[in-house]
Amino acid sequence: MPPPEPARRDSAEDAQWSRPECQAWTATLLLGTCLLYCTRVSMPVCAVSMSQDFGWNKKEAGIALSSFFWGYCLTQVAGGHLGDRVGGEKIILLSATAWGFITAATPLLTHLGGAHLVFMTFSRILTGLLQGLYFPALTSLLSQKVRESERAFTYSAVGCGSQFGTLMTGAVGSLLLDWYGWQSVFYVSGGLTLLWVCYVYRYLLSEQDLILAVGVLVQGLPVARDTRVPWRQLFRKPSVWAAIFSQFSAACSFFILLSWLPTFFKETFPSSKGWVFNVVPWLVAIPASLFSGFLSDHLISQGEPGHGDGPGPCGLRLTLGGREAPVLGVQLQRWEEAMAPEDQAVMGLGLSSVFALCLGHTSSFCKSVFFASASIGLQTFNHSGVSVNIQDLAPSCAGVLFGVANTAGALAGVVGVGLSGYLIESTGSWTSMFNLVAAISSLGLCTFLLFGKAQRVDLSPSREDL
Hints:
By secondary structure, this protein is an all-alpha fold. The protein has two domains: about 15-220, Growth Hormone, Chain: A (Up-down Bundle), CATH 1.20.1250.20; about 230-300 and about 340-460, MFS general substrate transporter like domains (Growth Hormone, Chain: A). It is built from 22 helices and two strands. One of its GO terms (cellular component) is membrane. One of its GO terms (biological process) is ATP transport.
C-alpha cells in the first residue's frame, strides 16, 4: 500500500537541500558546468592549429569536430534514468572523473601512431559519451533536491556555466594556444576537471555513497511499473514531435556556430586576436541568457498565487512548467501577447538566423564580431521557448523527454557540424555554412509555430489540461 500523499511530500522535503547546502551545490555545479564546456570547446578552439600539425582538410576537421556528438547522442536518456534511480550528483561525479582524465590524456594519443584523425575521433567520441550523462542527471538532481520556489534561479545560475566555460576557453585557451601550443589547452581543461572532482569527492560526497552507486550500476537497475514512460502516448502528439524537431534545429544551429566560428575568424581574419572573437560573443550571451530567463520567470509569476484573485473566467488556468497557476483573463492575454514561448522561439530561431546570414556577407572584422555576438546571444532565447516547452508538455516525465530531445540535438551536432565541413570544403566559401544555419533555424521555427503547444500530453485523455 503506497504511503499517503502528505507522508510522501514530507519525505521529499526532507531529502531536499537546506539553504546552505543549496548554495554550496549551486556554486559547485556552476563550476562543473563551466568545466564541462571548457573541455567540450577545447577542440573547436584548437582545430586550426591541429589541422596544420596533422594536415587535415575541412572534411577531416569536420569529422574530428563532429565526433564528440556521435557519443553525446547515445547517453542522454540513460543519464536521466540513472540520475533518477542512483542520484544525479553521483552520476555527474563518476562521468566527470572519466571525461577529465580522457581530455587530459588526449594529446598523448597523438604519439601512439600516425593515424591522428582516428585517435582524436575516438577520444572525442568517448568524451561525448560521458558528457551526455551530465545534463539529464543534473536535471534529475535539481528537480529532487531544490525547493520549487528556488528551482528557477538555481537552474539559471547553473546553466550559465555553459557560457562561462566557453568564454574561459575562448580567453585563456587562446592565450595558451599562442604561448604553449594546442596540447596545453587539453592538459589544463582536463586537469582542472579532475581537481573539481577531487573537491566534490572530499567535501560534498561520501565514499560510501559512491561505492553504493557503482554497485547499483554494476548490478543493473530494475524498472518499476509506475516509473515507465508512456512513450506511445507521447509520440502520438504532434506537439511532442514539434518540440523535438525544434530542439534539433536550435541545437544544430548552435553547434555549427560553436564548432566552426573560431576557424572562420582565424582563416577570414588571420591578423585578428583569438581572444577577441572567442570571448566577445560569449560576453554577450551571458546577459542575454539571464535576461531571457528573468523575463520568462517574471511573466510566469504574474499567474502565481498572490498575483491574482483566483481563477479567471470559467475557472481558466494556465499550466506552466508542470504547475497550475490561476490567472486572470487579462494576465493570460498579457502572457500570450507580450512574450509567449512562440515569441521567444522567433527571437532564438528566427532573428538569430538573420544575423548568421549577415556573417556570410561582410568582410569587416568588427561587423563579423557584432553579427556573431548577436546570433549567439539571441540563440539563448531558445532556452525559454523551445526547451521550456518540453516541461510544459510532460511534467511527470520531463527528464526522460528532455533526454530524447537532447539526443535529437546531439544528432544535430553530428549531422550539422560534419555537413558544414563538407560544404565549406566543396564550395570554398563560408557563406554556404551560414546559409545552412539559417535554413535549419527557419525550418525549426516554422515547425514550432505550426504544431507547438503547451498543453500537457502525459496524462490520460480524460485528464488532459484544457
